Amino acid sequence: MYVTMAVSTSLPATACVQLLGIFILLPVIVGHRLFHWDEKPWDPEENMTAGELITSKGYPCEEHYVTTDDGFILNLQRIPHGRHQDTTGPVILLQHGLLGSSTNFLTNLANESLAYILADHGLDVWLSNSRGNTYSRNHTHLKPWQREFWEWTWDEMARYDLPAVLDHILKITGQSQLYYVGHSQGTTIAFAEMSQNLQMQKKIKLFFALAPVGRVGHVISPLRLLAPFVHKLEVLLGLFGDYEFLPNNKFFLELANGTCREDPVICQSALFLMAGFDFKNTNMSRVPVYFAQSFCGTSTFNMLHFAQEIHSGKFQKFDYGNPAANVKHYNQRTPPEYYPGNVSLPVAIFSADRDWLADPKDVDWLTQLLPNVVLNKQLKGWNHLDFVTGMNAPKLCYTDILRLIKQHEVMI
Questions:
Q1: Which pTM value belongs to this model?
Q2: Does residue 161 carry a catalytic annotation?
Q3: Fewer CB in 10 Å around end: N or C, the chain?
Q4: Active-site residue among 139, 168, 183, 384?
Q5: Contact predicate 356/221, CB 8 Å
Q6: Are 321 and 231 in contact (CB under 8 A)?
Q7: Does the annotation mark 355 as catalytic?
């Protein structure tokens, strides 16, 4: 995977403002941490693994490992039932978004986190981790310090990760279908693969799309700052390191323990700068945990893929940079586009009007193409993160998920 081309590097005014915000916030966060070391004890959840988060709240947890056809070894967590029962009900898979992990569905309180709520309502809950994140950094023959380990994007997550995870879960549970919840990139890979894999559609009863992402031409987030450099891969690799983008490390844990506890608004602003702003819906006492658990890494190629989509305004496969390279990979000069209109299974859409990543215009484009939308709900005042951290998410979103599952189970 190699890309070389030239493109204008001029930035729109909005992007310049966002870039200025990044340069202001980062020194404030780092400087604040340097002068605040041990005033308060850490919240132990800042440094817990997904399995530890689950068991610390009294839920059972199983660790599973899935090997994809291209050799990546993915870690899954399973909550087979709730705290007050021991029977396993309908199966549901939760798939996190960009830079996230399975902990995205676990970092709120037990009565506010989607994974725990589903388990307590009798579902068999599975949480997946995409290749390259904190929990899925193993491969049958490649190592994370090798460039080849990071030469993938969400195309490969769709083509390899999702089918492997689905097949593993259905084999273990003995079921023929499951429910699927995707957040952000978790919806991207599902729409991408299901649009060209009709057999996989048959394995999903109902698809819950939280902050759905297909086309991203109207993104407001600073992710848009990468778009002018979409044809300068080596520039991006030089800026963001050897092929890995924002891995979880002690730096974020230190910030969470210091700055985020002393001034949670600073850290929440840093997160909101990417996702859109909604301070009223955040449990500020949980911000250190959110911050410590939020950045779990991906590949720079994956970030470049999203930047390409922002640049092109299309929902399409990775552009290898020149017609010859694309012909080699796709047998055509330009990357093939994905067609969400081919996704015929029932889809419930949950979006936000202040979402800087899944912009309402792009969500409308996606929703209009889908032939079987059973619910299309836009949450007013919400941003991209409220679907996993919002205090009123149980009332305004999760209750609808449970209601639709109950209706579907009665129907069948």
A1: 0.89
A2: no
A3: C
A4: 384
A5: yes
A6: yes
A7: yes
